[in-house]
Design a protein that fits this description.
This protein is α+β, with helices and mostly antiparallel strands. The chain is 65% helix and 6% strand. The chain contains 28 helices and 8 strands. The strands form 2 sheets. It has a 5-stranded antiparallel sheet with strand order 3-4-5-7-6, with helices on one face. A 3-stranded antiparallel sheet has the order 1-2-8. The longest helix is centred in the first third of the chain and has 29 residues. The radius of gyration is 33 Å and the shape is elongated. The two termini are 52 Å apart.
């Protein structure tokens, strides 16, 4: 484990530094507490590396602090969103409070305060909580604290459906709409509920033209504002599409709330019967989840469907078109929580890699080089001898559990994004062909004798994802595209910088896979013009390569492989003989080294001490003067069958000068 700790600590420090840069770019004074947490995550690993205590208490402390303050809060955020979707408000509040405790002064603290306002509104304690917030506002000493408290007040009034008070709060001391998307989203809702759609349009237009439209952190609030404006504008079809089951337009929005907004849009479109059905569904879902607030809203919506149909609102058609265009771009995004059956190629690749690793692990928990060659590892001398099937087979082999765990996790994260952007056929083609490109680079560089792993293909997937973000920039929301592209480029540079100091990593395979993925991404990225020929050719090559690799791995005989490896003619004293080219002649020891088996595999001297796992094989050659010259071979006992044909060839190739 200590072998991996230095680069792991370096990755922790670099990740914390990058998060600090992102935090600084937001220029939010309320996040100062989180800045100190990230500073600790930078200093601890740097101190461990500087003092050489990577495997000591300081190194493990750095990893523990990073996991506790960065990794665990991210997992809690996922669980919190899931609890919110399931209508478990109490569990979501508890998870949010725990997240805020682990990241003091971070976004979780604001979420916790907003959840407290929501709980007060649902409990009917709006006036009491409003008085408490006003008292805190009078004592607030910083502009950031004043802004946060006013946001909480607006949110409290909004959740209590006191829309006139929301407008009054804003007009008494206007919010900077362009830089406060949460408050602006609340204002859009308030103006829409009060029937002042023109004023809601002005607020939303300012949001769309401001920095919030390019800020990934503000995407959820902006999408809320878009949804409400479209619903009160009577855009029933658009709202139904945005809130379709499985849509990630507003992550965490419960099904009951989705049904309510679909009903609201239908109501303002003059479609009474669809509106009634949607409100009935919203009420049933809300009651099943014990969400009284949405149930009451659905009841109110049902009453309104029995009244005269409201007139179609007079809205800004240009703004509606802009909002629809940007909302549909959000729908075109890869869904982060897509079901596995929707990304079958990713699921099949991960499952295949895991299954092959488990099978090989059950056969041998610590396989040697020749065992990996038998299974299909990328062995440059064998590839040079014509065993090209190894370029594909080696992608599905892994060295140890940590190797398959890391590669499988990254493949699952990146693969489901790329498969949704490219489609299943394109994705399979670029994955396999990128992996082959990485294997070719590895075989050409011959950095190590045996190479295994899906890393080259995964780097190819990463390269293709970067290409898609650059080429399809007009089809993707700017905030999402820029945020993801920036993070991917940083992670790519971090990975390349960290791994360059680690000798056992196959750098050539990673770079070769990355460049192959970029090239294939340019050829296969979906465009307006059809590319059926390129896609079909890539898919056919990928399927053929997979079949070729499978047949080669199932029929491989290491003895045959070893015997046909490229050879070199060596002058050795009075002898000349032919030995495998990858063997190294050591003049000082007067012997040949075979890195795949043991040191000094061939010598003219018999050694007194031979390890118990090594077998001594002696072969004699008749010299022209009648002498018998002995050749001493030292081979692992488990490999004798593999080496015997080669040893016979070497003995037969001996010539005297």
């Amino acid at each position: 484990m200590c072998l991996h700790l230095p680069w792991l600590l370096l990755a922790v420090a670099a990740s914390a530094a990058w998060l600090s840069v992102l935090l600084y770019r937001r220029r939010d004074p309320s996040l100062r507490g989180l800045s100190w947490v990230l500073l600790a995550n930078i200093l601890l690993p740097v101190a461990a590396l500087a003092t050489g205590r990577e495997c000591g208490l300081l190194g493990w402390l750095a990893l523990f602090v990073f996991a506790l303050t960065v990794v665990v809060p991210a997992l809690l955020r996922v669980l919190e969103t899931r609890a919110q979707v399931l209508g478990r408000a109490e569990w979501a509040a508890r998870l949010c409070a725990l997240r805020a405790a682990l990241q003091p002064g971070g976004p979780a603290s604001r979420d916790r305060d907003l959840r407290a306002a929501l709980a007060a509104a649902r409990a009917g304690r709006t006036d009491d909580h409003l008085a408490l917030l006003k008292a805190r506002l009078n004592r607030a000493g910083s502009a950031a604290r004043v802004q946060a408290l006013r946001e909480q007040m607006l949110y409290l009034l909004l959740q209590s459906r006191r829309f006139a008070d929301v407008v009054a709060l804003h007009e008494a001391d206007p919010f900077p709409i362009e830089t406060q998307p949460l408050a602006a989203s609340g204002l859009v809702r308030a103006y829409c509920e009060l029937g002042q759609l023109d004023r809601a349009a002005r607020v939303l237009r300012a949001l769309e033209a401001g920095p919030a439209a390019l800020d990934l952190a503000a995407a959820a609030q902006l999408n809320h504002a878009r949804l409400m404006f479209l619903a009160f504008s009577g855009q029933a079809r658009a709202v139904a599409d945005l809130l379709d089951a499985g849509s990630s337009f507003i992550p965490g929005l419960p099904e009951s709330a989705r049904a309510y907004w679909i009903g609201t849009a239908a109501l303002y479109a003059g479609q009474s019967e669809p509106a009634q059905q949607a409100f009935l569904r919203a009420r049933a879902l809300a009651l099943a989840q014990a969400d009284q607030r949405v149930a009451l809203l659905a009841e109110e919506g049902l009453r309104r469907t029995t009244m005269p149909t409201p007139p179609t609102p007079d809205v800004d058609r240009e703004l509606v078109h802009l909002v629809l265009e940007r909302s549909r771009a959000v729908l075109a995004l890869p869904r982060p929580r897509v079901r596995m059956r929707q990304v079958p190629v990713t699921l099949a690749l991960v499952a295949g890699n895991v299954a092959i690793f488990v099978a090989s692990y059950l056969i041998s928990r610590d396989p040697d080089g020749w065992t990996r060659v038998r299974w299909g590892a990328n062995f440059p001398p064998a590839v040079a001898a014509g065993e090209w099937w190894r370029l594909t087979a080696s992608m599905f082999l892994h060295a140890d559990p940590l190797h398959i765990l890391c590669n499988g996790y990254v493949l699952l994260l990146l693969g489901r994004l790329v498969e949704q952007l490219y489609g299943a056929r394109r994705y399979l083609g670029l994955y396999v062909l990128s992996g082959i490109g990485g294997s070719i680079a590895s075989a050409r560089a011959a950095q190590g004798l045996v190479s295994v792993g899906a890393s080259g293909a995964i780097f190819g997937v990463l390269g293709a994802l970067i290409v898609a973000l650059l080429v399809r920039r007009r089809a993707l929301p700017p905030s999402w595209r820029r945020g993801l592209l920036t993070n991917l480029l940083f992670l790519l540079l971090l990975q390349l910088a960290v791994e360059w100091k680690v000798e056992f990593i196959d750098h050539a395979a990673h770079l070769g896979g990355l460049l192959s993925g970029i090239l294939l991404g340019l050829l296969l990225v979906p465009r307006q013009r059809p590319a059926r020929l390129r896609v079909g050719l890539a898919l056919a090559l990928a399927v053929a390569a997979l079949g070729y690799g499978a047949v080669g791995a199932l029929t491989c005989d290491p003895a045959v492989t070893l015997r046909k490896l490229p050879r070199q003619t060596v002058r050795w004293g009075e002898l000349t003989l032919e030995a495998p080219r990858y063997w190294k002649f050591k003049e000082k020891e007067d012997a040949f080294d075979d890195p795949m088996d043991t040191n000094r595999v061939l010598s003219r001297h018999e050694y007194d001490k031979v390890p118990p796992e090594v077998r001594h094989l002696e072969r004699s050659v008749l010299a022209p003067d009648g002498r018998m010259v002995s050749l001493h071979f030292y081979v692992q006992k488990d490999h004798v069958r593999i080496y015997e044909p080669l040893l016979a060839d070497i003995t037969g190739s001996v010539r005297f000068r």
